[in-house]
Amino acid sequence: TVDGSKCGPAKIRPEQMTPEVWDYVFFKDAPAPKTDIPMETLKKFRQEFEYWYPLDLRVSGKDLVPNHLTYFMYNHVAMWPKDQTKWPKGVRSNGHLLLNAEKMSKSTGNFLTLHESVELFSADGMRFALADAGDTVEDANFAVETAKSSILRLFTQVEWIKEILGSEDSLRSGPADLFMDQVFDSAMNRFIQLAEESYSKMLFRDALKYGFFELQTARDQYRDMATATGAGMHRDVIRRFIEVQALLLTPICPHVCEHIWELLGKTGSIMHASWPVAGPVDELKMVSAGYLRDTIHDFHQ
Asked: Residue 3 needs a FRET pair 20 to 30 A away by CA distance; which of 72, 96, 264, 281 works?
């Protein structure tokens, strides 16, 4: 128990945890302590500690930067002054969460619990809106309208996927070597790279931007070009788009992406799937495609 009134699985009493025992657990060069605790148990303690250290990331509010988070780092350096492998690898500070651009307050009624939010917007709808709320030390804004629109966006995307997979025999097959195929393929490769970079920096709004919004725009441009030329979309290219987007969006909307994974006929959970591999990005073709779109737009004016 927490107060030490009852022994745990190792059958150790509080008085047995002497400073020498703690030193053995925390410091690799500490000698074996004089104790009646079995050495095998002490080794398990040390192994458990070594498993969890170093601390990869400490996440907390920006108000704790001048106190808790600062001394958090001081304490680790004081404990292990010559062993930097035990020092924290990273600290992530975030702002507070606003609701509809106002401070949350029960007294004013501007308040939502996690349970209420999931009931209102679903788990993935809420996660989508939270990712879109912001990532820096500036206060993030959870907007109800964004949460509502996220549900519609996800629903619309799932319905489009069902429709396209149900009629994929009508899509173009054979070599995917048309100009528009190559442009869309390059766009997917670019957004895989940008989304991965954003996730690694914990910039979830940017990850959502590249993994969903920008990728959707690239899909729409591909569809428009395929319709305008009469060539139609390529089955393999579209299938790759659906798979890539599902994988890029999984950290934010895991339940919807799991459903999409099943629609694709994939075996196993998307949680066990590998991150998509980005191929080469043909910058010349992408710039050329952008020039064509701008020119067509000017002609329409």
From this structure: 72
Which residues, 6+ apart, have CB-to-CB distance to 96 below 8 Å?
61, 62, 63, 103, 139, 140
For the chain, report the end-to-end CA distance as a whole number of angstroms. Answer: 74
**pLDDT above 70: residue 106:** yes
Distance of CA 264 to the CA centre of its chain: 22
pLDDT digits (tens, 9 = 90+) for 227-256: 988 999 999 999 999 999 999 999 999 999
How do strand 97-99 and strand 102-103 relate by DSSP bridges?
Answer: antiparallel
State the CB neighbour count (10 A cutoff) for residue 119.
12
Tell me the whole-structure pTM to 2 decimals: 0.82
The stretch 257-274 carries a mean pLDDT of: 96
| Plot region of 109 (φ>0 → left; ψ -120 to 50 → alpha; else → beta) | left
For the stretch 148-180, pLDDT in tens is 999 999 999 999 999 999 999 999 999 999 999
Residues 6 or more apart whose CB falls under 8 angstroms from that of 225 comprise 180, 183, 289
Phi, psi of 140 (to 5 degrees): -80, 150
**Cβ atoms of residues 251 and 199 within 8 Å:** yes
Whether residue 207 contacts residue 248, with contact meaning beta carbons closer than 8 Å, is answered with: yes
Rounded to whole angstroms, the Cα distance separating 22 from 216 reads 55
Report which of 119, 138, 141, 118 is spatially closest to residue 130, judged by C-alpha positions: 141
Asked if 191 and 214 touch (Cβ cutoff 8 Å), the reply is yes
